[in-house]
Amino acid sequence: xxxxxxxxxxxxxxxWKQLVDKGAIYLGSYEGWYSVRDECYYNESxxxxxxxxxxxxxxxxxxxxxxxxxxxxxxxxLLEFYEAHPDFIAPESRLNEVVSFVKGGLKDLSIxxxxxxxxxxxxxxxxxxxxxxxxxxxxxxSALGYPSTDPGSNFDKYWxxxxxxxxxxxxxxHAVYWxxxxxxxxxxxxxxxxxxxxxxxDGEKISKSLGNVIxxxxxxxxxxxxxxxxxxxxxxxxxNDGDFSDEKMIYKVNANLSNELGNLNQRIxxxxxxxxxxxxxxxxxxxxxxxxxxxxxxx
Length: 299
What we know:
By secondary structure, the chain is of the alpha/beta class. The protein has ten helices and 13 strands. It has helices at residues 6-21, 75-84, 92-103, 132-142, 154-158, 171-184, 216-223, 225-235, 246-275, 289-298; strands at residues 25-35, 40-42, 59-69, 89-90, 109-110, 112-113, 121-122, 125-130, 164-167, 193-196, 199-201, 204-205, 242-244. It has a four-stranded antiparallel sheet with strand order 2-1-3-5, covered by helices on one side. Strands 4-10-9 form a three-stranded parallel sheet, covered by helices on one side. Strands 6-8-7 form a three-stranded antiparallel sheet. It is elongated and about 85 Å long. It starts with 5 loop residues before the first helix and ends with a helix.
């Protein structure tokens, strides 16, 4: 589903009204640092050398009317939830990051703007449109037919989501804001979140402006499908950042595949040719204790 479709807009407006009915939204005013690229507001204390923690530029948003979500009301509930569900956020380093952020104190969240007109209009207030995250996050539910939650509906069958896989830069929205929205609306939370890291190239962040985007099709054409899969899966533990370079790729393929795996394969084939009539035995008999121990160590 696209966020511009009428059904999605209806779903988001219904969700907004649910939050209003629960007393979780109020009208106030806002000013602060905003990153267009990250679609996120930042506190002064979060800026690094005048930029967002992600390295994105920020601009000062002058004081304007805004609707706020009472995020501060959910600080204790979120911490209790994380403690009761320690596997909710993975890897553990990301859980620690989120818990530390919430313990630092939550401020109410600006969720509407008046300085532009694209987006989903706020119900009963034509001067405001919803700020991107309450709109975008509701997409998980509108894709399942929300607000239809009747027994047998797609929402009834598939929500809550078993797993959200997100980039580490949007973990806060999924691990703090989204659960709080759902708690306020008395809706089930996703079962788990996993935040993956970033790939860099030659030590630099990948971006269109730098022209260092990696085309996976070109990687496959150059190195082959299996070597590419092997590099991506083995070079970085899932959840951490990783750096790609052609030199690392070539070294990985030569050292682990050509040399180590190739050498192992050559030794096995020589053994089979020399001792097993050039064929893999089909009748191996009962496993010995050594066989069982070896299999158990690889399990």
